Amino acid sequence: MCKYKFFWSFVILLFINTEAFTQATTNSPYSRFGIGVMHHETTNFNFASAGTGIGLRSFNNINTLNPASYSEIAITSLEFSAINSALKITDGKQTQFQNNFFFNHIAFGFPVIKNKWGMVFGATPYSHLGYDYSTIKTDTVAGGVSYYYSGLGGLSKVFFGNSLKFNIDSTSLISVGHNLEFIFGNLYYDKKVIFGSIANAYNLWTINNNHVADFNSVFGLQYQKKITNSKSEKTILTVGFTYSLPSDLKTKKSETIRTFTGNIDYGAIKDTLEVTENVEDITKIPSIFGGGFSLEKENKWLVGLDVRTTKWSAIPSVLSDVVLKDNITASACFEITPDASTFKNYLKRIRYKMGLKYSTAYFSVDNQDINEYGITFGLGLPLKRTDTSVPTINVGVEFGKRGTTTNGLIEESYINTFLGLTINDRWFIKRKYD
Questions:
Q1: How far is CA 393 from CA 104, 300, 390, in A?
Q2: 430 in any annotated domain
């Protein structure tokens, strides 16, 4: 009975979280470009590791960064997490502070066949869209022209993944995996152009609303080798690769273009130039190729490195001042557990984590690249374990920066705090009676 409650609790949480993912979760002006600011996908397992996970496997944690890792899951696990993002925005002259709380992920995984086949499904944000800012440009004919931009929404995804493991010999294995993703959401864009230097001018107001809903696929591969030294100490090397397909996501696009007089606070509609509703369109997302590795002394320490490249250059930009370009994201992590088996000193059972990440720009504004970097710290706090469960609370913090104040652009500094809970149990046990 408890296990049925466990499962239905996940279903309810999945529904709640999927609805929550569709809310505004950022105030970044850079989310205006493309489909918004891309979500850095993390789970309880790897938030504090700067999102490093392509070459990681775990028997009691869910690692959605590589679906090939699911075959390692040995006990049924439910996990979910939330992030609070504190954002500082500055152009070098003015500074704003924003705060957003959002659900980061929910996932449910279990072994279909232990040590052979693992299955996971869940939900997570895909991109974040939320901005409200203005700028003034000088035109040789119209004089000062004010541009007002606002946007709201973002994309989310629910996924269903499977992984199979094949033993090569007693010390090495290979695992393959696949995630089927359903990406959906609304992208709302609002733009007003006001010709303030021309008396009685007809200003321009454009509203776009895009509803996206379609499928995508991600493939994963991992190779693992266990190395035993002369003291019978095991070191585990894991190498992984992932590939996310490029896709043309089905989109229904609505657009309204109007003219109006007055200003941003008070105006009168003069004419409606164009209205289109639910026109069939596509939203392009790029291919993503990733590779990574980890080296681990079991229950002692772990080091890992990931590199991902995203083919944004294959997607045309709809904005004249923005160029999309291929980007590279690199992350590295280090974890240490002083003594996982002790019951006398709780501090020694904690998993201590830190990570670094750097991402080159996937777009440039007025020929200026918008790069991002960050550092993370966190703790894996073990709860009371039993013979069949290894529950954990994960806490973490990330300090990062994106953008620059060069050429009148915007620099963003953020502090993301993370809280995640993993609960698990061993299901489908065949009990023996005398």
A1: 15, 19, 10
A2: no
